[in-house]
Amino acid sequence: MSLSLTLSHRFADFALDITLEAGPGITALFGRSGAGKSTIINAVGGLLHPNSGRIAVDGDVLLDTDLGIFVPPHKRRLGTVFQDARLFPHLSVSQNLMFGARYAPRGSSGPALKDVVALLGLQDLLDRAPATLSGGQKQRVALGRALLSHPRMLLMDEPLASLDGPRKQEILPFLERLRDGPLGLPILYVSHAVDEIARLADTLVLIQSGRVQAQGPLFDVMADPAAVPLLGVREAGAVIEADVLAHGTDGISTLRISAGTLELPGVHAETGARVRLRVLAQDVILSLTRPEGLSSVNVLPVEVEAIHPGDGPGAAIALRANQDRLLSRVTARAVTELGLRPGLKCYAILKATTVAPGSIGR
Amino acid sequence: MTPDAAAWDALRLSLWVAFWATLLAIPLAVWVAWLLARKDFWGKAVLNAAVHLPLVLPPVVTGYLLLLAFGRTAPLGQALNALGIQLAFHWTGAVLAAMIMGFPLMVRAMRLAIEAVDPKLEDTAATLGAPRGMVFFRVTLPLILPGVLAGTVMGFAKAMGEFGATITFVANIPGKTQTLPSAIWAALQIPGGERQAVMMVLMASTVAIAAVLLAELLARRVAARIAGA
Asked: What percent of chain A stands above pLDDT 90?
């Protein structure tokens, strides 16, 4: 399953010029508002006819402006979930769900109504009218409706952006189930929230001013010091995978990563589970010697891989901690004073509170 | 004092004419309203003006133009006559006149309703695999139903009350083309005819008020269903 696309489209105030590939799993498109993310989703879905470009899903050409091919949206079989759920107000929840199923191609494989209802916890909502649902419930119904149309791929345009924190937490597990579950549906996921992407994405595409600035596996792009300005200095930081070893009675859990163990609060995953940790670059402190008598116990031996000076007084440092990579953000002055250079062995200190509960997933 | 047979005939004919005029105009009005609300095409301004023309022209002018187009000596009228369709001086002509006069009112109400529907809902239906026609019948039409009802009642009321174009195009033949307004006008021309005129005025008012109440009731039901109350 793969999507390949080349697009260029001119708006009054900016131009989009994009080439990207999306494979299986969740491919996240990240960029600030107005970067052109929604334009890409609309072009893939067939709701926008770009000036020029080519879009193919598994070799099936949906758009080719050179050959004059434009497959209308209803024949593309790409389910779309929008930021505003866009439920049909005159239909009940179950009728909205069946609207998706009605036009699923005969004999197509995909989940049945009862599977979707169970997956998304919609049992108690079926007879309700959309107007009576909360934002999170609406989004779950919209997701179910899209799944029932048996799409080849799911397009999600900021599906969580209009939800508050708790409502987001209500949806995220369902998206994880979708990614890891038997459906194995590829998802093109647009977002401007780094925490969502760190938790969900397999592949990350960074978009700025209508152009792709970086793309690759999530762990690589998040650990790339060049990506720091694109993600924002406060949001940038590596994502690493950890195994939950034990939960302490004091609320602190022990997790193992390739370079050692970490002790972190607020880990809700079960013992033995594999979780993603998002370690913000600004929360990683470097020391040339192994620090003693420190309040933090999360100290990892690391090796400097690259130094990426920023536009301001800061610099992003790429670190290798055994199999994993980390990012640290320090001042340019500290780089000079500590004599940081590629190949240097030093210690990274992570405060126990570095990893916010919301950043822990899977 | 009760309405005489001629008054009942006129009421019956008016209801019959208004019923057919409205029924035939609904699909066309919905389509034109949809074109004006959703599509950009060459000649849109002209279509809009043409639709609204009967609203601004003196009705007698509209009636005269109909007579010029569909009269017995006009080419179009002769062609239709050959097919067995007679319009001028016939109740079917009254249906056509009523249709044309009520059309702008119907289109206006329906166009507003269509413009109020979020096109994103129609886009969403398409992404779920619904072909265009199905998007219209399953999403757009149910959502504009209150507007269609409002337009239909306006059209029906206009058709019941149409006088100038009708009397010019189909004349005022009792029992054949004499609608309620024509009959009221005729009664007022005869000395001592006021009593019958008053009877018919009561008939016309009753029908008009009943139509408005019925439409209000239906529109509320539909709106409540859409709002999910």
From this structure: 45
